[in-house]
Amino acid sequence: MNLAEGVQIVSFGILAAMMLGAAIGVVLLENIVYSAFLLGGVFISIAGIYLLLNADFVAAAQVLIYVGAVNVLILFAIMLVNKRQDFQPLRRGWIRKAATAVVCAGIFALLSTMIVSTPWAISTATPAGDASVVVIGLHFFSDFLLPFELASVLLLMALIGAVVLARREFLPDDEADRAQVEALRLPERPRELVPSGRDETVN
Amino acid sequence: MVSTSFPWLTTLILLPLVASLFIPVLPDKQGKTVRWYALGIGLLDFALSVYAVSSQYNFQNSDFQLAESYVWVPQVGINWSVAIDGISMPLVILAGLVTTLSMLAAWQVKEKPRLFYFLMLVMYSAQIGVFCAQDMIQFFLMWEVELVPVYILISIWGGQKRLYAATKFILYTAIGSIFILVAALAMAFYGDVMTFNMHELGLKQYSLPFELLVYAGLLIAYGVKLPIFPLHTWLPDAHGEASAPVSMILAGVLLKMGGYALIRMNIEMLPHAHAYFAPVLAILGIVNIIYGALASFAQRNLKRRMAYSSISHMGFVLLGIASFTELGMNGAVLQMLSHGLIAPALFFLAGIVYDRTHTLDMDDMGGLAKKMPTTFALFTICSMASLALPGMSGFVGELAVFLGFTTSDAYTATFKGVVVLLAAVGLIITPIYLLSMLRDMFYGKEGKAVVQAVVLDVKPREFFIAACLLLPIIGIGLYPKLATETYDVKTVAIASHARNAVPVVANQTFKDQPQFSIAEQPPFGIAPKMPIANPELLGMVR
Amino acid sequence: MDFASLAVQLNAGTIVPEAIVLITLMTVVVSDLIIGRQASAQWTPYIAIAGLLASVVALFYQWDVANPISFIGEFNGDALSVVFRGIIALSAATTILMSIRYVIQSGTSLAEFITILLTATLGGMFLSGSDELVAVYVSLETLSISSYLLTGYTKRDPRSNEAALKYLLIGASSSAIFLYGASLLYGLSGGETRLSTISASIASAGLAQSIGLVIALVFAIAGIAFKIAAVPFHQWTPDVYEGSPTPVVAFLSVGSKAAGFALAIRLLVTAFPLVSEQWQLVMTTLAILSMVLGNVVALAQTSMKRLLAYSSIGQAGFVMIGLILGTDAGYSSMVFYLMVYLFMNLGAFTCIILFTLRTGTDQISEYAGLYQKDPLLTLALSVCLLSLGGIPPLAGFFGKLYLFWAGWQAGAYPLVILGLVTSVISIYYYIRVVKMMVVKEPQEMSDSVKNYPPTDWTLPGMRPLQVGLVSALIATSLAGIFSNPLFTLANDSVLKTPMLQQALGRSKAPIAKQMAPTISQQLSLQITEVSTKKAVSLPKSMVHS
């Protein structure tokens, strides 16, 4: 074992421990803000493991997108909602937890057995290293062109969908009245909506 | 000749169906145009069928005639192939007659007339389609097409418990028809050649267990329709709750579909299994006859009494089918025809009585004879026909079945003796319940329903309908050849076909028995007793 | 790699139909932006329908294309994919027909609805032809995410929100599981992502019987079964169907499901031929559960949309029979059934939408006595439901007949008999609705029907609804009787698909030899039993005189 390998193994150990610890924290901590921050820790640890695997572009993307965007969004969402609510402890909640633990442990055992027992057909090509961005770009514009372009449509649609969900609807009342009599009411028509957050402001 | 190439049967089947599609767009306010339209189509189709048979059909030929075959869905091997022979031809005519008359009988339908006549015409098509189909899938399709119209006809224009009756009907029939489709698929894929053509299926060489299994499945499917004893329970409800015109079709035509299919498939296509099952059929026939008669006697509802009497009469058809003789087979067909005329007449007259008195409970009737003398007369004639008075068609049919069964050489004397004796018992109960029905309805003190009602006798239209049914009843009764000679050659062929299978089967089971070929067979009656194929099955009756 | 040779390699002509849909989508978005919402609602739906129909026409010209492989193996525009893409495009067109009035009346904007629906269509169409794991996953996500958005489209209705959230959560986890399975495939095959090369690589690596492949299979099936709503991956169906806007449900139950089946065929046949016994066994189990549970639970439903949700689970079970068989006829019967299912199910949904628009309810009991007020609607809904139940001579009967025919041909007797029994059960609950509409007396009429407004086809958006209704009615009644072209289309689509032909030719030999006791082996045992019996049985010595 030379120095480089030793460093790798040690870094892998540290990253793995960080990731597992943070992930367990995400699940187990009561305070949701802590969970959100720990999630960022999980993402960063994963990015580190990517780096160890010579995948520098993926690591950068991981940090930028998951930590920089997704996780920050989650935090924003948590802080905007800011609804303090104590969860009632479920009766016999431990049964659910135990069942979940058993199922998870089973799946973990199964998958790890599978991973260990399978003689993986490992690719022998030399890693691209620093040129990985170029390689990925080449792939995007040759053999992965179709999913790449389709992903742009997907993003466009997600954008539109987000706007649709987020914008405030102005119902043109006159139009609604013109065409509809009382019987023409859909189940999807608005009912009495519970205004969210009103109670706190009044009190 | 131009008319030979004309697709007569396809026209007969499709005419009412296509015509029914125009009913929703007919300009009509009170439902009057619709009924004339439907009646006109019915008459036209009936006239066409009579013309086609009289001009194109050769009564001396036992083969399929007026045959047409078009490729329908070649990928699955479904053809539109229609043909008629001696078994189906009379039933096609009967279906035309009864359905047309029932549309005339439904003249008073006020509620949703368009829907009513639409469904009637669809049923008309389906009935003729069932009798003409030569392709198993086409047969199944026609069989199922009739399902929903009957369901709706019962559940809209029926009596108090009509929804229950209709649901029971559709569940029984739909579950039964699973067996038809399974049998069709099993037979079609048997062997090397995939075909749904009934004739080709009949020529396939099936292994005996397979044949027995398919036979049993088909027996259940058709046993529901005919109906055979443990599967009959839908019938009293359906017939009892349906309105008179619908009951006429139910009793007149739909029950015959079961009998027809038994002859067409179970005997013609699976003769070896028939040799095993025939004793069972005979026993079931006896059970039908006696059980139907006894149960009928216990009913106080007029229509339910008639419904159980239908069960009893269909027992004779089973007996005839099981007889292995020409005479018995002939009698079975004749019994179907005759019951197909008598039962609609009785149900129609019951409908008249209900129309006047608004009750079907015989306890509330009585003394109707004075108020409705013509109805009384007609009712009496029909009852006499039903109880097999000589000179009426019922008598001829039942007599032929008896004679056929007695002269059958396929059964031991003891078995035949017991069967005939029990059938005779059933025959004695029949007059008892029919005559007591007449007494309760027409004689004695006026019942409370009769006192309250304004009772009118039959109208000319109603008399005409009854007469149309009674004339053939008496005609066949006086001169049976009128009917029998139209299909005689075919029943002879079927009987010998079924009979020929017996020695083969016997030979298979008992290898040491000499095999009889048709030429060596001594005349009926003095034949050495054939061992019945399955000794364990019949150990008890030997 | 210079541009010209790349363009040749891409062979982009195969995705012309999708390109048309994409152009339509962009047109709708941009024109809505330019001319404003009020004006665009007048004609954007018609642009969308025209675009989808044009796409179907373009698909027609893709039928006999010489080289279906395009985008360097990303996309396979073979005949099977053409049929499925056609089904998806047609279902989207019909969905737009029925949604115009609905969306107007629910007070949401139409152009965005159509945009998202077209994106879902695009995803479904690409999914039907994707031949590579990344393309499969991206198109699957395009379809799924658009479906989540559509489900929650009427965002002021709490039930719609609930449905969208449920669908999103379950859908996201199922696609994560699917992705895990795909990554296992990638690893096992030593870095292959093309479906057609994966199995060869796995076989050459000696991993044909490895547990990893089985786990990959199970995970992939979990993703597919979620899309086609097969039991036990169906839990989302009733709630999502009940809560979402009805046109969306129509699309989910036909278009989305067809895409799921296209994926199932392609993935299972090309990527998992090494474990075909295992996947047939798993799918058989799913089919049995779906048929039984879907049809039995449907009996107890009181809401029309829930009824159709459970019925669509049952219908998926029927279609899966064709998938399991692994014969030419099996695949063609699947395709054929999906084609007739398109007509009848969309027809039923059109009727439900029409009824909901007039009365604001979808309770089955509220349909009581509808015949008196609206015979056309009653007729159309009855015909579509009876066709779903398999009553002849409607289209559904022929669809089921072909499935059962193919099943019997392949020797899957228990499945066929179970299918028959469950379709009788299904007749019971379909006819319950028909009974409710037709049989009830005028005095038993429900309140909604008593207040039923007279039909006014001139309101905006009603005319397309009418067109959709009548065309579905005609197609459902006649597609069965004149089904020959559809049969030919279904059969040709299978015969002309190299992937299926190759699989059928290849999978015969191993099935006969290897494998533990599975259903197919028991069936083949039965077949041999029957044939030996036949050999022993004596020939009939019958003389026809």
UniProtKB/TrEMBL annotation, chain A:
One of its GO terms (molecular function) is NADH dehydrogenase (ubiquinone) activity. Keywords: Cell membrane, Membrane, NAD, Oxidoreductase, Quinone, Transmembrane, Transmembrane helix. Its main location: membrane. It is a multi-pass membrane protein. It catalyses: a plastoquinone + NADH + (n+1) H(+)(in) = a plastoquinol + NAD(+) + n H(+)(out); a plastoquinone + NADPH + (n+1) H(+)(in) = a plastoquinol + NADP(+) + n H(+)(out). The keyword Oxidoreductase applies. Its EC number is 7.1.1.-. Pfam families: Oxidored_q3. One of its GO terms (cellular component) is plasma membrane. It is found in: Cell membrane. The chain crosses the membrane at residues 6-29, 36-53, 59-81, 101-122, 144-166. InterPro entries: NADH_UbQ/plastoQ_OxRdtase_su6 (IPR001457), Nuo/plastoQ_OxRdtase_6_NuoJ (IPR042106). NCBIfam families: PRK06638.1-3. Belongs to the complex I subunit 6 family. NDH-1 shuttles electrons from NADH, via FMN and iron-sulfur (Fe-S) centers, to quinones in the respiratory chain. Couples the redox reaction to proton translocation (for every two electrons transferred, four hydrogen ions are translocated across the cytoplasmic membrane), and thus conserves the redox energy in a proton gradient. This is NADH-quinone oxidoreductase subunit J. It comes from Myxacorys almedinensis A.
TrEMBL record, chain B:
One of its GO terms (cellular component) is endomembrane system. Keywords: Membrane, NAD, NADP, Oxidoreductase, Plastoquinone, Quinone, Thylakoid, Translocase, Transmembrane, Transmembrane helix. It catalyses: a plastoquinone + NADH + (n+1) H(+)(in) = a plastoquinol + NAD(+) + n H(+)(out); a plastoquinone + NADPH + (n+1) H(+)(in) = a plastoquinol + NADP(+) + n H(+)(out). Its EC number is 7.1.1.-. The chain crosses the membrane at residues 6-27, 34-54, 87-107, 114-131, 169-190, 210-231, 243-263, 275-294, 336-354, 375-397, 417-438, 463-480. It is a multi-pass membrane protein. GO terms for biological process: ATP synthesis coupled electron transport; electron transport coupled proton transport. InterPro entries: NADH_Q_OxRdtase_chain4 (IPR022997), NADH_Q_OxRdtase_chainM/4 (IPR010227), NADH_UbQ_OxRdtase (IPR003918), ND/Mrp_TM (IPR001750). Residues 133-419 form the NADH:quinone oxidoreductase/Mrp antiporter transmembrane domain. Its main location: membrane. It is found in: Cellular thylakoid membrane; Endomembrane system; Membrane. One of its GO terms (molecular function) is NADH dehydrogenase (ubiquinone) activity. Belongs to the complex I subunit 4 family. NDH-1 shuttles electrons from NAD(P)H, via FMN and iron-sulfur (Fe-S) centers, to quinones in the respiratory chain. The immediate electron acceptor for the enzyme in this species is believed to be plastoquinone. Couples the redox reaction to proton translocation (for every two electrons transferred, four hydrogen ions are translocated across the cytoplasmic membrane), and thus conserves the redox energy in a proton gradient. This is NAD(P)H-quinone oxidoreductase chain 4. It comes from Myxacorys almedinensis A.
Automatic annotation (TrEMBL), chain C:
Its EC number is 7.1.1.-. It catalyses: a plastoquinone + NADPH + (n+1) H(+)(in) = a plastoquinol + NADP(+) + n H(+)(out); a plastoquinone + NADH + (n+1) H(+)(in) = a plastoquinol + NAD(+) + n H(+)(out). This is NAD(P)H-quinone oxidoreductase subunit 2. GO terms for cellular component: endomembrane system; plasma membrane-derived thylakoid membrane. The chain crosses the membrane at residues 15-36, 43-63, 83-103, 110-128, 134-153, 165-186, 206-226, 247-269, 281-300, 307-325, 331-355, 376-398, 410-431. NDH-1 can be composed of about 15 different subunits; different subcomplexes with different compositions have been identified which probably have different functions. InterPro entries: NADH-Q_OxRdtase_suN/2 (IPR010096), ND/Mrp_TM (IPR001750), Ndh2_N (IPR045693). Belongs to the complex I subunit 2 family. NDH-1 shuttles electrons from NAD(P)H, via FMN and iron-sulfur (Fe-S) centers, to quinones in the respiratory chain. The immediate electron acceptor for the enzyme in this species is believed to be plastoquinone. Couples the redox reaction to proton translocation (for every two electrons transferred, four hydrogen ions are translocated across the cytoplasmic membrane), and thus conserves the redox energy in a proton gradient. NCBIfam families: NDH_I_N, PRK02504.1. It comes from Myxacorys almedinensis A. The gene is ndhB. One of its GO terms (biological process) is ATP synthesis coupled electron transport.
